[in-house]
Specification:
The chain has about 220 residues and is α/β, with parallel strands linked by helices. It has one domain (about 5-215): Rossmann fold, CATH 3.40.50. It has seven helices and ten strands. It has helices spanning about 5-15, 50-70, 80-90, 135-145, 160-170, 180-190, 195-205, and strands at about 20-25, 30, 35, 40, 75, 95-100, 110-115, 120-130, 150-155, 175-180. The strands form three sheets. A six-stranded mixed beta sheet has the order 7-6-5-8-9-10, with helices on both faces. The protein has a two-stranded antiparallel sheet with strand order 1-4. Strand 9, helix 5 and strand 10 (about 175-180) form a beta-alpha-beta unit. Helix 1 (about 5-15) crosses helix 6, helix 2 (about 50-70) packs across helix 3 and helix 6 packs antiparallel against helix 7. The chain is globular and about 50 Å long.
Amino acid sequence: MINKSEIELKVAEFLLQIKAIKLQPNNPFTWASGIKSPIYCDNRITLSYPAIRTYIRQNLSALIQEEFGSVGLIAGVATAGIPQGVLVAQDLGLPFAYVRSKAKDHGTGSLIEGEVYQGQRVVVVEDLISTGRSSLQAVESLRAAGCDVAGLVAIFTYNLNAATQNFKEVKCRFSTLSNYNVLIDYASEHGFINKEDLELLRRWRDNPEGWGVDPENS
């Protein structure tokens, strides 16, 4: 059995150390949706660090086996979920496919690249879960192709209530190696942020749409 608490902390440590995750509660980032965010996550950076890449691959593989049992296909979500999915599929000796965000506008017009079969049991691999909408588009595409989607795994989740609700609505289980709650506590305990920053980060998690640096406006 995997030690989830140990893995959560180790992955949080790695992501902060290599700056795959940046925390800037006083100089927030802006998402494409317009939401102001104190955190920026780019897990593709982990691919440049062999030891970290290996740790993530091994533990995503172990997580799939423990949470979902036997599966017949690993499917990555384009684009950041593709390399992680390939690594996991290779580790488990399974076929791999990936799901585009939209169908190609040329050639075969494929939405899913790779061979999938009716009734094939699939686990989807993603790098990051925010609201979960893009991940769940991939899940629905695979279901439409006749696949039995057992669930989804990812490196990290922001712990947003919207994601929990979105996954629940489409009846898709998901599990991650680490998460926002663990990460901000680790960051506070190890000097990446101060106590005031920690409070701002907690406020964002609870109300990302209405969050602001000034507590009176959040």
